[in-house]
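Minutes, project check-in

Agenda point 3 was the complex the collaborators sent over. CS summarized: two entities, 957 residues total, and the question is how they sit relative to each other. Sequences were read into the notes so everyone works from the same version.
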Amino acid sequence: MKPEGASAAAADAALAEARASGLRLILRMQEMTERRTVVADGRVDRERISRTAGLGVHVFTEDGAVGFASVDDLRPEAVVAAVQQAGLLARATSPRRAPQRDPLHSLAGASALGASALGASALGASALGASALSARRRCERIAQPAQPSDAARRLADAQQLLAALNVGADRTVRTSLQAIDERWRIVRSDGCDVCFDTSRVAVRHELGGRIDGRAVRAGAHLAGDASTDLLDEQSAGRLAVRLRRAANDAVAAASAPPPREGSYRLVLNHALAKGLAHEAIGHLCETDVDGSVLMRGGRLRLGEQLARGTVSIVDGPLPGDFVQQPVSANGIERQTVRLIDRGVLTAGLGDLFSAEQAGAPVTGACRASSYRDRPTPRMTNIRIEVAGALPLDADPEGLTPDDVLRAVRQHGLIDRSSPTLYLAGYRGGQAHPRRGDFVFGADAAYDLSDGGRPLGPASFSGLAERALAAIRAGIGPLCTDAIGSCGKDGSAVSSSGGSHALLVLDADPDLVVTAAP
Amino acid sequence: MIVADALAAYLDQRPPCDGQRVAGWRFEVAERTALRIGIRDSQLGGPYEGPGIARWLAGLLELHWSDGRLTRAQADRQALADPPSALAEWRSAALVPRHGALPPLPGPSVPPAVQTFDPSVSQAVYDEPARALGLLAQLGEDAGRSGAARVDAVLRVTVGRHAVRSSAGFVAGWDETAFSLQLWADELGSASYERRSWPSPADRDRLCVEATEQAHRLRVEVPVPTPAGGVLFAPAAVDALIGRFLLPNLNGRTIREGRSLFAQTDLDQRQRVLRDDLSLLVDTTLPFEMATAPCSPEGVRAGRVALIADGRLCRPLVDVEESQALGLPPTPRPRGRPFALLECAAPALTWDQALQALGHGVVVRALPGLHTQAVRRASYALVTPDAEAVVGGAVVGRCAVRLAGSLIDHVSQASSRVVRVSGVLGPGLLVFDGVGVTPA
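CS then shared the predicted structure for the full assembly.
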């Protein structure tokens, strides 16, 4: 399948100019249309469309200097000017840098890894060009089963299922549909030319109210790739179940005493476990983070036992997932990587530019939010898998604190030496890879050592390595559809992941729960 | 701007779509060129931080249709260059206005003259990129000479041309520049500069000294001072607290819908929310600040307004549509920092005076995890791994602390003091009462 139209002419112009200028090049073309519909308390509150299209060129000189240029104009003359500017900028840094290893080496390595196996048809990707399915039509297919008003009506219908949820006074429900139609084409000087689709869709309910003067807020989402229908009745029912669970947590936390600061055995729901995997482990394995605590002397500590032999942490795209990226922003096939395999650090998230230095293979981990960004190693779907996970006799979608208590008791996981807390509702988090510390927020906590007594919102903070070592058990099936947005280096990309429905961590003095307001 | 002229001419034809016509419109179109370069591990450039230039055109449109519906859309170069190709898509996103009636469009008006353009920044983007590279390289060398074994930095320089127009006759156009620089020393100390003008030699010296001295102070790990008498929040931390807890709660729509910390009655009764010598303002006229522009994308003129005056709620942040519902004038909208200014009628302390007044306690420059804290409660409980321990009025090293408190409480306490830092617009805050500090 040959790319046609404006994108083909732009790519040809860029490659020709790079050749003429003695540059090697990676070209990234992006076309994206995002449609966001928000229904607030039954009526359409917002309907917005945004479009982005353009290309970025990453050029390399013979002595290893690097330049970058991007433009939202695909006319050949604009693309040629961009390549020239990138080349000039790259050469301007040459006198100020120690000569680097020839980047052609990296590109050649990448070619061997991927380019020959990455024909567009081999990946099932489509050409990005005038003759391809237009962004607008694709967006309609995702976001609008019939008309925009129909999508809005179905969002309003989905809100009807929430009528029984009581969050006190000033009740508001907002439901948003985000449909992103996005395609990329990556072209390199070494002949690699590949297109891929990262279209995705998400629906989210946000419920707010006030109980005894205290704000109560609960949210739930469903997400998937472009083929996912999130507006059907089944999805609406599933989303309502998730929101009910979140609302119950928020209501319980609103009037509950705060958790006492301390170290606890912890039971995390899968969204919090995704936060732990993403922030506290995944970022530490990205090969461009040269001072990560999981590195020594700039190299990943591969081969070191960091967790129990039952614990594995895996990153890679999953079929139907919200974060679907089959090919890296450098045109290399994205691999599914077992970062931690049976407790041992076995791999990193490696890209062309830093994997070798980190002592890890290139895994096609590079991602970019926009054609204007310089790509870096990023996660896609990251999940914590525990071998021999324990059974869960409840539906993970509507898991109640009583279900959790019953499961933890059934498996003898109530800690007799320290209290056991269940944390639910991921509020977001942050980690510092070079220090290895992290902090997360949870909407609610329950004291499982005291019959599941509700407690207020909690913060969970500590050291990533200690958290890894503390993972004791998984309960229930893998739930990998928690989503978020990763803001590494100021560039936001979608992220997803999870773990078993419940993840159990041992108490550790370096893992602390405190009250969160 | 040719694109703006062509778009306005097209929309003035009241183009039809889906049986309706464009009956009114406003838009902002901006064309920008940005240069970025970084230092990573003391090396200029490289695959992640190599110099790069980006050029793009973007627009924000509001279309009013003959059936009373409203479209808001972001448009890229392709749509702006060929609006007929995008019209059906824009029509498909039309909705009934939030309050029933279409919001008013800005009429003929001359926006105030404000300083947004520094020709030396523009020159560095278009003609002399080597000047920006040279400045960054020099800064890296200076930081190295000041003791930093590792230097990281990112510099961004942007030039833009803006046009805001409406079918009711509003026409504004201006050039703007931006210069931002972040510098890290040994991955411990950091400093930043973000304005619309090229940094002065004094600004560059401040960046270098601030980052390297902070790194030096943080190399030594010490216990949390006991008893910790208080917390000195640096301006960046105060800015983050205001951005997290005050501004979202001052949004007019949020208040009207009961989703704010403040109720409509609080606003109506001008409830006291800060100490009476403190005010919170929005100002989009400050020379060369990122907040500054002649008008908002909605055509709201630049200005300076108090949201909280003398400690009392004064007016909320409202856009044009919400201003109709609340019967209030729309608020100027900052385009960048400062998003709000905390001002104090009482004399402020200098940084050194604040350290002396603190005696034993901690300095907090950053609040990791602040975004996980509930906006509507204004209180927080956070771990700060890089607090600076202060003993006898001097910083003695780094300590990790757990902090707990409430911004509203901090700015209500009689004992709290506003602190001014030379070369920094926003204030710091010295808090003695109502803040918990424990070892982490």
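Noted in discussion: Residues 303 and 345 of chain A are 5 Å apart (CA to CA).
Follow-up: revisit at the next meeting once the mutant set is ready.
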